[in-house]
Write a structure and sequence with these properties.
The protein is of the alpha/beta class. It folds into two domains: 213 residues, TIM Barrel; 135 residues, Lyase, Ornithine Decarboxylase, Chain A, domain 1, CATH 2.40.37.10. The protein is 26% helix and 25% strand. It has twelve helices and 20 strands. The strands form three sheets. It has an eight-stranded parallel beta barrel with strand order 2-3-4-5-6-8-9-10. A six-stranded antiparallel beta barrel has the order 11-14-17-16-15-18. Strands 12-13 form a two-stranded antiparallel sheet. Helix 9 links the parallel strand 9 and strand 10. The longest helix has 14 residues. The chain is elongated and about 75 Å long. The structure holds pyridoxal-5'-phosphate.
């Protein structure tokens, strides 16, 4: 038998989260962001649940091909645009819309031979200083694109650096609006944080919004707000089993480096999940975990293939008992990925994307819902 660790994707939760972010911006069209293989979930596994989106946004051409192979004929946006001239052939043949964020990409486009005009999202750098034209150069970039025969339609987009924090989006939004105000074309703004925190007060107005993480049941501004606050549900559960039990006496230690020392006699469960599965080694003693749907804590250091848990609150647990590292237990208890990520000093995004290939996915058609 293979090791008992598995990942479960919950289609009903994906659908419900999509519905939830739609409510945040009911008048905008919505790109479901599926970069990084749908935040580690697998594009093929989320596709059906996200069919109600208006388009899919990603940045890897191989992933764009997979979307077309699934039969998606609607809009697909390449968030970083093309990396080399050859990529433009695929944009033409697969009808991919693409971001243009620098002069090099305009140059490539001007040399591209195509029968079909391309749909471009011209990216403005409104303060993030990652990709995009600064306000002063946006107009000339637009003018250049506008006279290229290769270009059919130009839209504008920008990306917020602080939608999840106290700085907010107002200054960047004002820059974006000022720089584009008299130019024709649709506008795209707003990741999950901007949508959930700022769309309701009309701080962001956009024809297209681009949520990612919220669709996957992780709060973009945890710990200020958790997924329950935002009405989101876990979409990915990582579950394994107890494969060993130790009765530890007061004063004894658990695991490498003797990092945990028992203060009193206790039962310790050993779980088939380690950092080689993508569970963060940084998680210290006390990281929340579910045993048989009951919340308990990890003990000591995470090793490559195993970790230890405190069985004090779960006296019936033993060999073969289910353990949920994050997500929803088969009994329906939820443990948001954000709590585990926080214990590891990171964010839900990283944990989702870091699941290792040795963790096999299991279809969850029963769709365990969080309580
Ligand atoms: C990843 C990404 C998003 C989605 O961000 P989330 O925080 O996951 O909602 C939106 N826009 C761009 C340009 C991105 O790269």
């Amino acid at each position: 038998m293979p090791r008992p660790i598995h990942a479960f994707v919950h289609p009903a939760a994906l659908r419900q989260n999509l519905e939830r972010v739609r409510q945040a911006a009911p008048n905008s069209r919505l790109w479901a962001v599926v970069k990084a293989n749908a935040y580690g979930h697998g594009i093929e596994r989320v596709f059906d649940s996200f069919r109600a989106a208006d388009g899919f946004a990603l940045l890897d051409l191989e992933e764009a091909k997979r979307l077309r192979a699934l039969g998606w004929r609607g809009p697909v946006l390449l968030l970083e645009g093309v990396f080399e001239t050859r990529d433009l052939e695929l944009c033409s043949s697969l009808d991919l819309w693409h971001v243009v964020h620098c002069d090099d990409q305009i140059e490539m486009l001007s040399r591209h031979k195509t029968q079909v005009g391309h749909r471009i999202f011209l990216k403005m750098n409104s303060g993030m200083n990652r990709l995009g034209f600064p306000a002063l150069r946006l107009r000339s970039a637009w003018a250049r694109l506008n006279q290229l025969p290769q270009v059919d339609e130009i839209s504008f987009m920008t990306h917020f650096s602080d939608a999840d924090g106290s700085k907010g989006v107002a200054a960047q939004m004002a820059q974006f609006e000022l720089a584009t105000q008299d130019l024709p074309g649709e506008r795209s703004t707003s990741n999950s944080a901007a949508l959930l925190r700022h769309a309701s007060d009309n701080a962001v107005a956009a024809d297209w919004v681009r949520p990612g993480i919220a669709l996957y049941g992780s709060s973009p501004d945890f710990p200020e707000h958790d997924i329950a606050h935002w009405g989101l549900q876990p979409t990915l559960s990582l579950r394994s089993q107890i494969i060993g039990v130790q009765d530890v006496q007061a004063g004894e230690t658990v695991g490498y480096g003797s990092a945990f020392k028992a203060e009193h006699a206790m039962r310790v469960g050993v779980v088939a999940c380690g950092y080689a599965d993508g569970y963060p080694r940084h998680c210290p003693t006390g990281t929340p975990i579910l045993v048989d749907g009951v919340r308990t804590r990890t003990l000591g250091r995470v090793s490559m293939d195993m970790l230890a848990v405190d069985l004090t609150p779960c006296s019936n647990a033993g060999f073969g008992t289910e353990v949920t590292m994050w997500g929803v237990s088969s009994k329906g208890t939820a443990l948001p990925i954000d709590e585990v990520a926080q214990a590891a000093g990171t964010v839900g995004y990283e944990l989702m994307c870091a699941l290792s290939s040795r963790v096999k996915f299991v279809d969850d058609q029963t769709a365990n819902q969080a309580e």
